[in-house]
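In practice, a research group might receive sequence data for several interacting partners and want a quick structural hypothesis before committing to experiments. The following worked case mirrors that situation: the sequences arrive first, and a predicted assembly follows.
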Amino acid sequence: MTEPADLLVVDELRYSYGERVAVKSASLTCRRGEILGLLGPNGAGKTTLLSCIAGLLTGFGGKLTFDGKPFLPADDAGSRARLGLVPQELALYSEMTAKENLAFFARMQGVPSANVAAAVQRGLDLSGLVDRKDDRVSSYSGGMKRRLNLAVGDMHAPDLLLLDEPTTGVDPQSRNHLFECLLGLREQGRTMIYTSHYMEEVQRLCDRIVIVNEGVVIGVGTTEELCKQAGSAEGNLEQAFLAMTGRSLRDES
Amino acid sequence: MNTWSAAVLIARKDLNLYRRDRTGLLLGLLLPILLVAVFGSVMKFAFGGEGGIPRVTIWVCDEDDTAASQKFIAALREVSMLSVQPRVKQEARTAEDLRSLVVDGEAHHALVVGKGFGEALANATEPQLTLVRDPGRHMESRLIGIGLMQAMMSAGDGKSMSWMMGSMMQRFGMSDEGVDRMRTGMDVIQNLIGMFASGSEPKLRAPDAGDVDTKRIDMTSMFEQMVPVTKEDVSPPARPKNLGFQLAQSVSGMTVMMLMFGLMACSSMLLIERDQGTLRRLLVSRAPRHAVLLGKFLFCFIVGMIQLLVLFAFGELVFSIGAFRDPLTLLALSVTWAAAATSFGILISVWAKTAKQAEGVSTLLILVMAALGGCWFPIQMADLPWYGEVITRSTLTYWAMEGFQGMFWHQKSWTDPVMLRSMGVLWGFVVIAGGLSWRLWRRRFAGT
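A structural hypothesis for the assembly, expressed as tokens:
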């Protein structure tokens, strides 16, 4: 039996925080082995969309399908095991070492005890923190923490890795390291959804891009396809983005 | 900009921020008001006797049932430092009932007015009075002694003074002849009592009786011993001799209160996880979501048990409180109280929106419950109205204190109905708080 090409299908997803509608109608597909970029101005609904996919928000309208089957991560630990989350915050225990953080989250992800050491080593390699593995996270630089944040999210080699602005506040060297890590993971056939405000990041990393504006998906495609759709200069994603989402300032509420 | 302008600007900014945190503001203003109200009320009821002397409860049974005995009991009810039980309209109890109350630790002093009381009073001889008591309650004993003297003098129409004094001095070793001579000095004694009642320090001088063993006269306790009573001491045989009631009260009170303070960290743990982002990561993990809440409970519970163990070991080492006399009861109580205190912390944790809220509410509730539950002083001493009884029994600390005092002071085992009741109430709270926490957790954190 062949696997479906689309790993995740989001079908007309809707979500409101009380009276305020965050996602009006979002439909997208994430293909197996690709990095799907999720772009949108502040308050467009990117994080809400990601949170619904991760099962952190429930009670949304629409349907999620994963590997051709209905996907309910909030209720099903097995579904969650197929996801990895790299949140915007540095979701680490600062008074624990890198090694301890990695081991803890590996166990929480159900990695068998016998494989934890190998998973930790893989995480240390990925984050480039082998030499600092026994230092407390509180002593790390911002870039080191970001790298570890990514490694922790990928501890259990999930089918789909959700990355929510993972390069916030990172120096060019660490950012480059993160890009290389992500591209390396794609080489291994891993699937990722990547949100960011940085056009050049998305352009460099992502195979396809979804543009969300005011809770609605307004464009899907490669950089070239989006530029064509927006009627902007070829290869300039930022111009296409501004043309599609407008130039007025956005404020998150 | 000069220093002063900058300081004013910063202060204005902080005041604005302070004003916007409505819950914090409310807590900041309400906390002192509430604490003053609670403590003021408790103190009023606890130390509502004349001159701020604590009101002591004494149970009374009238076996004589004559006009004189009724008059004596009525006079006893008038003594401001005593709270006489059963109350006038309540059903009378038998002497055996009262003995059971003291044996069970429900009462510490019970007075049985024996048959022939009225006749003895009429003949100016010693009446039959039996005081069943917990010998460790020294302070209450002394106050009751004074109360008995006041009531006897009031009810005896002046006839009782002579035999009371005579009886007392005979106990101090005075000869019959001396007793007779002493009676002539009654006026002096009356004067002394007047001074005592007015609160001034009596300047006592031994009566000029010649043959009294003055070394045996303890002037500070003279009045307490004036009414001769047959003392019937009831105390658990296993109670350590060096364990005083105040020490047992302190150990129990501090144990109960400090565990709650120790577990205050529980109340902000989930919020810290949420704020540092690790909670999202845990929720997306393969682990069942309720495991996060259960894990927090388990951690706090273990820390609580360690705290209790350290406290009891210290108490045993330094004060020999007999903490490990009955390990099963100690374990049952410790597990119960650690679970209840942890549930309290977890409930606050899932309810609060900010760490500031969690800490403020925890502090407020812990202090109020500690005072009302009897951690600071025996709340049973307070002559509370019915609603006061309801309020004190609504606190976790009351039931924890009942359990720990039951173990330390009354030497009860965990199978005793009183102990089972207190543990049952606490486990009831664990279940209710656990259910509420679970609902709040699902709604506010787990997103399910």
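Before designing any experiment, note the following. DSSP finds nine helices and ten strands in chain A. The radius of gyration of chain A is 18 Å.
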